[in-house]
Amino acid sequence: MARPVFIVDGSRTPFLKARSGPGPFTPVDLAVQCGRPLLARQPFAPDAFDQVILGCVNVIADEMNPARVAALRLGMGEQMVAFTVQINCGSGMQSIDTGYRYIREGLSDLILAGGAEALSHAPLVWPNSGVRWFAGFAGAKGLGAKIAAALKVKPSYFKPIIGLERGLTDPITELNMGQTAEKVGHLFGITRAQSDAYAAESHQRLANAQKEGFLKGEVETAFSRDGKFYDHDDGVRPGSTAETLAKLKPVFERPWGQVTAGNSSQITDGASWVILASETAVAKHGLTPKAVILDSQWSALDPSIMGLGPVLSASALLKRNSMTLQDVETWELNEAFATQVLGCLAAWNDEKFCREILGLDGAAGEIDRAKLNVDGGAISLGHPVGTSGNRIVLHLVNAMKRLGTRRGVATECIGGGQGGAMLIEMV
Fold first, then answer.
1. Residue among 3, 2, 1 nearest 279 (CA)
2. pLDDT > 90? residue 179
3. What is the model's pLDDT at position 148?
4. If you compute the radius of gyration of the chain from its CA atoms, what whole number of angstroms results?
5. Strands 291-300 and 268-277, how do they pair?
6. Closest C-alpha among 224, 332, 269 to residue 57
């Protein structure tokens, strides 16, 4: 029989907005910064874990398999098995899902599952024409051949491309993620005013959560090597209003698009961990579970409308558990774009979509906005790609504890045309 899988603790770094140049932390730095205090407060040694699983998309050259590097730096021992998972925006949730399945099937009892991403460290990529020229120059034999090869050089060969820009463009549809959000908005008639209002609300909710101390115990202070410290998510703009956001110009589809820098998720650095445990580990170490993972679901769809991934994955998850949208008391739906979130809400309330795509008898209905992203989301927090799926699960648990709710769903859209969802119940 499948064993229950508990979430017993977790923590994350502040999410730090990427600015000019590499940020103060690499992905492993971030994982270590929030991992150390998390492990230090446990009643067991760091080497008691069976394995470490970390989601990371933009792995940097100096940290191949960042899960293993982080595990060693966290003092978890040379015998600690650690591996990195990657499913784009769902990577941080994939780490939890993978650990959940190991424990559920009886193969492990205690797993550290996380996500880490430093988008400010995304590499600059040479144009292919420049790479070919350099290869020809390096392979030229003799002084004459070297000079002849050198004379073929063009200035354009030395104009690098930001790797992140390529990474956020789907290679199948050749649409960037912002353009897929524009398409979702067009399909469901989402207006610019609606998107800006949603984005402003995200900032206001995060600002309120910071002011009221709702994130204490979740966010660990991070200390950089130059002695600076970072103790809060710094992308929040408390003064944002629909009116101020309406002044921004479209980014992806000019001049008529509605997706702007203000109603999109921010490019950010951050890491997050959760500790997963079996009943055996709970009893052995005297742990107090916070929540139990009831189920998870991954779904896929046309990459050009990848933003609707949560509708497919969460709907399949709820159907398998004989639940409706209204049975879920708290939702975390990753805010890749305001238009994308609103498109998902509209799809659930669209009778034709629900009949033809979800196989339902009619519209699934509405999600009460008071139950959705109660403390803001990626528009105000930022979206470190490999981390966000982990953060929304961690925060869902903490928010449900504060609100006194019982069941919640964490879900996200995934670049490339996929979606992930996880059903959580408080203990």
1. 3
2. yes
3. 93
4. 22
5. unpaired
6. 269
The CA distance from 187 to 180, in Å, is: 11
* Cα–Cα dist 102/391, whole Å: 21
pLDDT in tens, 276-295: 999 999 999 999 999 999 99
- Its sign, for the CA torsion 337, 340, 345, 346, is positive
Give the model's pLDDT for residue 161: 82
- The rounded mean pLDDT for the chain is 96
Tokens of 256: 């008529």
pLDDT confidence band for 141 (50 / 70 / 90): very high
What digits encode the pLDDT tens for the residues 205-256?
A: 999 999 999 999 999 999 999 999 999 999 999 999 999 999 999 999 988 8
CA distance 158 to 131: 9
At which residue do the structure tokens 């912002």 appear? 178
How deeply is 361 buried, as exposed, middle or buried, from its count of CB atoms within 10 A (0-12, 13-18, 19+)?
Answer: exposed
Write out pLDDT tens, residues 95-131: 999 999 999 999 999 999 999 999 999 888 888 998 9
Total count of residues recorded for the chain: 427
Q: CA nearest 91: which of 103, 83, 101?
A: 83
Of 311, 384, 283, the C-alpha closest to 18 is 384
Residues labelled catalytic: 89, 383, 413
Q: How far is residue 31's CA from residue 66's CA, in Å, rounded to a whole number?
A: 9
275 Cα distance to chain centroid: 17
Angle of helix 388-403 relative to helix 91-104, nearest 10 degrees, comes to 70
If DSSP codes are grouped into helix, strand and coil, which group holds residue 295? strand
Q: If residue 132 lies in a helix (H) or strand (E), which one and from where to where?
A: helix 128-139
d(CA 387, CA 57): 9
pTM: 0.95
| Phi and psi torsions of 119, nearest 5° | -65, -20
- Give residue 189's region: left, alpha or beta (phi > 0; psi -120 to 50): left
Q: Give the percent of the chain with pLDDT over 90.
A: 92
